[in-house]
Amino acid sequence: MAVLGSLTQEFNSSNMRYCINCCIHLLPDDLHRQCFTCCGSNHNNQKCPVCKGENKIPLYTDSKQMKLLAVLEVRTDHSESWNGFFCLRKGKLCSLMFGLIIMTLVMASYILTGAKHGLLLIPSPFHYGAFTSNPSLMDNESLSDMKDHYQPSKMNISYVKDYPSIKLIIDTITSKIEFMTRQRPDLEELRKQEPHMFSVIPNKFLPNSKNPCWYEEYRGNTTTDPYATNSYALYSRRFRTIFDYLRKVFWNHLYHYKDKHYRLRCLPHFYIIGQPKCGTTDLYDRLRLHPDVRFSAIKEPHWWTRKRFGIIRLRDGFHDRYPVEDYLDLFDLAAHQIQGVLQSEAANERGQMNNIIIGEASASTMWDNNAWIFFYDNSTEGEPPFLIQDFIHAFQPNAKLIIMLRDPVERLYSDYLYFASANKSAEDFHEKVAESLQLFENCVLDYSLRACVYNNTLNNAMPVRLQVGLYVVYLLDWLTVFDKDQILVLRLEDHASNVKYTMHMVFQFLDLEPLSEKQEALITKSPASNTRRPEDRSLGPMLPTTKAILRDFYRPFNTKLAQVLFDDAFLWKRT
Asked: Where is this region: Disordered (predicted)?
């Protein structure tokens, strides 16, 4: 006879006998008076209503009270195993029922909260399928962060079966695409919106400087800190070192005339306006090696698009607006050098043009107009009445603009890998693309294409930035205010395969002086900047299905872009 636990009590024939089915908790007086089917020592198996007909072996114990954790039932006939099931105790049955209820509640909580992982048994509405690996779907990519090859997914979920559903979403979006020319606001309307900006920046610039510069009277004294209230210095420690240096040399660069002090102010001669994850950092790093090129103290001030509206970080909401003076301070280092050239030329070679030019490389300038709705009155159909380019053109009608573009499909995946913080994977990217497409479809069903592209609520709701890859929408809006010969549009794919060629195009566009072979080699042979991080490379490329979906989505926009630029390379056809 087997025993549960470490039961050391010895059994003997003098002990009382109790029915094992009902007398579970033994009493000190050796008589289970509450058991109506047992009668103490006179209990008889054959007469007991519970035990009758069953060959049970009673459990013998002594008169000492015992708290058994379990009851060991020993049968002489093991074939009757079903009898034990029907003899479950009420306590055990209640525990079982309680456990089932708890489990049901937990499952319901997962379902109601829409959890995409864990115990959720209902498939996500955005969990679309993937095609099987097909090399014909892949591009011949030359970029350093586009050389990965697709590895078949190890997931058991099929991504291919729901492709027709998401294709219907794309077809709906395509049917709503209409490229409408926007009406350009007049100068007086712009003045009413930004009166302070127009009071600071003059209408004319110095004639002997290639870069737009002017002298501004400085009314402070030697004890005044000219950068004490600069928002860039206050909100970022990175820039404080720069401004500490500027404070030390500030008075040495003031121009003194008739008992007054003047400082040289400058705006950029050219802007690298976009797009993000398209090689703008690499272009910036190479271009600033040219001896006649200077840049702002920081690569991306984001003043036109964000800081002048008080946006420091998009997730933090609005702060105090950065005045235009704070933006101009970022060009003081370059202005000091230009001033030095102007003064030396005035003394020796009067009338010779200063060739130093300043650039600014905020990759948000081309596309980010999300803040307009909070500061400007709404227009019909929810379209912004004023765009960034309207103001830049008002001050600098001769500004030059450089745009670096990339296959929008690959750009989006690179953007996702760069900005996503956790749980990055090709499958997660696929789901975010599907969700973003559905949100974009909902918008174009009710509003114009331009209204959706510049819709702050929509852009913040989409898990991935689909709208940034709609290059032609932004380009057409820039062409409403700037001439086509003022805009240079490059492809990252061409830049990656032939850096020397693209840099020559940029130098020619900016009218820069020719370089020596040594200077040119320094610029063109330096390693690429801001390539994909090793940890992101290990994730591999996107799923083939995701690529096919995004190609379908971007195709009509790429077609229009190629028509505008008269260059089929911007179709990004598969090879």
From this structure: 523-542
